[in-house]
Every structure is written in structure tokens, then in C-alpha cells.
Amino acid sequence: MGSGIVGSTMFVFVFLLDGATRIGYAPLYHPVSALSLGDRGWVQITNFIIAGLLMVAFAVGLRRSLYPGHGARWGPLLLGIFGVSLVFSGIFVMDPMQGYPLGAPSGIHTVGVSWHHHAHDVFGIFVFTSLPIACFVLARRFSKSASRGWTMYSMLTGMVMVVLLMFFGTLWENDHHFAGLIQRMMLVVGFTWITLMAAHLYKECKKECD
Fold first, then answer.
1. How many CB atoms lie within 10 A of CB 122?
2. What is the per-residue burial (b if ≥16 Cβ within 10 Å, else e) of 2-19?
3. Are 6 and 54 in contact (CB under 8 A)?
4. Side-chain half-sphere of 77: how many Cα atoms within 13 Å?
5. In the Cβ-directed half-sphere of 25, how many Cα atoms lie within 13 Å?
6. DSSP annotation string for 35-95
7. Residues 157, 189 contacting (CB under 8 angstroms)
8. What is the pTM of this model?
9. Residue 134, CB-side half-sphere exposure with 13 Å CA sphere
10. Closest to 199 measured CA to CA, from 90, 81, 61, 16
11. Segment 3-59, tens digit of pLDDT
12. pLDDT at residue 111, rounded to an integer
């Protein structure tokens, strides 16, 4: 479970700190993926890959923790897809746009989008859909174990992420200057859920072992 706590906390900390200290980068406007561009792009690329691998490790541990029972297959599988998609989101970087890095075309509708930008978009879809679905799947698992608080929290997290995803999509298509903020909110909500759930399951596991 430690990989879930470390991976999620690290990912959020790195993109917040890196985004706040980049010249020409506007955290409220630019997406997190834009941090993979420029001279310091390796920082976010590494962040994507390491966090993704830790999420895959967490998914394996979660499978062992939940088995047998409801959600023991689909919950870990969805979190595994989430982790793999993070890895490939780092490998396939987006194109320069929205004026970042300095000298890049303004706006998001650029001509001749590269293949790796398309690949990044595809894996991004998996990132932002697999996690809220995992929330709903594991909410059902928690409901079966009479854990009302975690059932409600997981359901709420999934619903908030879906709403923010739709909101982000609308703002992104309109090149809105607050699109980056909404994406960050979505990521923080999702990764916070992973961190707290991993800590919760770790405590439960220790109680059973003791």
C-alpha cells in the first residue's frame, strides 16, 4: 500500500512545485502535461513514469488485499490501467502550444499535430476515466463491507472527477485561461482518494495481521 501513498503524493507535489517555478508556465492555464516540454521537461516525464509504475505496484498490492470479494478484480485492474496510462503519458509528450514553451504557437488548435501528441491524448483519456470508474467499483466493495464512510467518499470522489472532467473538456476546447486550474483540481481530488484509501487499507491490514 505504501506505493499508492508515495506515488500519489509525489506526483501532486512535483507538478505543483514544478509548475509554480517554471518561467513562462501558467499553472491556471496550462495543463500538467505541458510540464513535459522545455529544458526541464524531464522532471515531469520522470514524474509521470515513476508515479505510473508505483500505481501499478499499488494495483497489484490492492488485488491481494481485496481478494476475494467484490471489486477484487475490476478495482485493481482499473488502477493498473491508470498507472500504465500515466507511464505512457510521460513517454509520449504533447506538442508545444498555448505559448509554452516560449515561442510555441498560441492557442490549442495547431496545424499538423504529431503522432505522439495523439498518443498522449489517448492515454490521457484512460488516465481521466479509469480512476473515477475505479472509485465507483470500490465504493460498491466498501458498501458490502458496511463501510459507509468510505462508500460515500468513494462515490463522491468519482462523481466530482466526472464533473470536473466534463468542465475541463469544455474549458480546454475553448482555450479558457482557467482550464489548467480545473485539471489540477481533478488530479488532486483523485490522487488524494488514492492516498487516503491506501492508508486506510494499510491500517486495516495491520489490524488483521495483529
1. 14
2. ebbbbbbbebbebbeebb
3. yes
4. 7
5. 25
6. GGSSTTHHHHHHHHHHHHHHHHHHHHHHHHHH-SSTTTTHHHHHHHHHHHHHHHHHHSPPP
7. yes
8. 0.93
9. 26
10. 61
11. 999 999 999 999 999 999 999 999 999 999 999 999 999 999 999 999 999 999 999
12. 64
Band of pLDDT at residue 205, cut at 50, 70 and 90: low
C-alpha cell at 50: 515513476
Give strand pairing partners of 102. Answer: none
Burial class (CB in 10 A: 0-12, 13-18, 19+), 173: exposed
**Residues constituting the chain:** 210
Compute the distance between CA of residue 204 and CA of residue 64 in angstroms, rounded to an integer. Answer: 13
pLDDT at 110: 66
For 40-75, b where at least 16 C-beta lie within 10 A, e where not — what string? bbebbbebbbbbbbbbbbbbebbbebbeeebbbebb
First to last CA, the chain: 17
Is the pLDDT confidence value at 80 over 70?
A: yes
